[in-house]
Automatic annotation (TrEMBL):
Sulfotransferase domain sequence ranges: 18-212
Signal peptide feature range: none
Source superkingdom: Bacteria
Keywords (A to Z) from UniProt: Glycoprotein, Transferase
InterPro entries: NST/OST, P-loop_NTPase, Sulfotransferase_dom
Gene3D superfamilies registered for this protein in UniProt: P-loop containing nucleotide triphosphate hydrolases (3.40.50.300)
Protein name, entry field: Sulfotransferase domain-containing protein
Biological source species: Gloeobacter morelensis MG652769
Length: 318
């Protein structure tokens, strides 16, 4: 073992539970970070990236038997860290965060990766189209209108998750719930760091986890959203990917080769671009939330904030 500390994942008679969770945010680069960390010898990654085990709590539903959760960590070989990543957890509030801590143990560490909300929204919109959850003829402006017109009582339902795009960028409404439960065991990182220098971001995460800084051989972008040419072929590919995810994650080179072949056959770039008028509108929507988030993070000791937060005032919370 190369680790410098002795974290202790919680064990049960049926298996081991994770003690490292990437809890947010959707389209914030969590797949890339999960993939990079999976290659560290001191980290056992779940066989399926998004186990979604605690996600029912976000929608007011009960949890499945814990044995179903344990099945995701059958590859555990005494590594100090056991990890999963379900970015939808972040908006689950205090109940989800507290239940997760009670289930996994007080020594569990949580990573949250935040992305500039306008760019995250546009990526989320393209992702929902790529997942066939939105009509291909829906424009970004129509999507924004649909999100804003959907009542809060409806948009919070799991069936309407594709229209959660705008609210998913209101990070300030969720972050304190996680800090209150996990305190110093939660660390916020930024997509900006991942995009500009993924190796430096990994070094920060390794230092926080207190493991040896062993970088993976490749730092390629994972889960990049790509449009498709043929809808039938794309639907079939999504089904195969969902069924074969555990196998493909066990053989990352095979996964990469399969993905590259599919994109060469059926992938094409998204052609739609965000207009300046739309960007200005979204900037006005997110500005008050970003200002408050900057205050929250500054009060938690964060100083090197990205540009979309660094210009916000850091006075008293109102």
């Amino acid at each position: 073992m190369t680790t410098q500390i002795s974290p202790s994942p919680r064990r049960t008679a049926a298996g081991v539970l994770p003690n490292l969770v990437i809890a947010g945010v959707v389209k914030g680069g969590t797949t890339s970070v999960f993939t990079y960390l999976s290659q560290h010898p001191d980290i056992c990654a779940s066989s399926k990236k998004e186990t979604c085990y605690f996600l029912p709590l976000r929608y007011g539903n009960p949890l499945a038997p814990v044995d179903q959760y344990l099945a995701n960590f059958s590859r555990y070989r005494e590594q100090p860290y056991v990890m999963e990543a379900t970015p939808g957890y972040f908006e689950g509030g205090s109940k989800l965060a507290q239940t997760m801590r009670e289930t996994l143990g007080s020594k569990t560490r949580v990573i949250v990766i935040l992305r500039e909300p306008i760019e995250r929204l546009f990526s989320f919109y393209n992702y929902q189209k790529a997942m066939l959850n939105l009509a291909q003829n829906m424009t970004f402006d129509r999507y924004i209108e649909a999100c804003q017109n959907m009542p809060d009582t409806e948009v919070c339902k799991q069936v309407n998750d594709p229209y959660w795009g705008i609210k998913g960028g209101f990070y300030t409404e969720y972050i304190d719930s996680w800090f209150d439960v996990y305190e110093d065991s939660l660390k916020v990182f930024f997509f900006d760091q991942l995009k500009s220098d993924p190796a430096a971001l990994l070094q920060q995460i390794y230092a926080w986890l207190k493991v040896e800084p062993i970088l993976p051989d490749s730092l390629r972008v994972e889960n990049k959203t790509v449009n498709y040419k043929n809808a039938w072929l794309h639907k079939a590919a999504l089904s195969v990917n969902m069924r074969a995810e555990r196998v493909l994650r066990a053989f990352p080179d095979l996964k990469d080769a399969t993905r590259r072949l599919y994109f060469a056959l059926n992938g094409r770039p998204f052609e739609e671009r965000m207009t300046e008028a739309t960007r200005a509108h979204l900037r006005s929507v997110y500005e008050p939330y970003n200002r408050r988030l900057a205050v929250q993070l500054t009060h938690r000791g964060y100083r090197d904030l990205p540009d979309w937060l660094s210009s916000a005032p850091t006075g008293r919370l109102s």
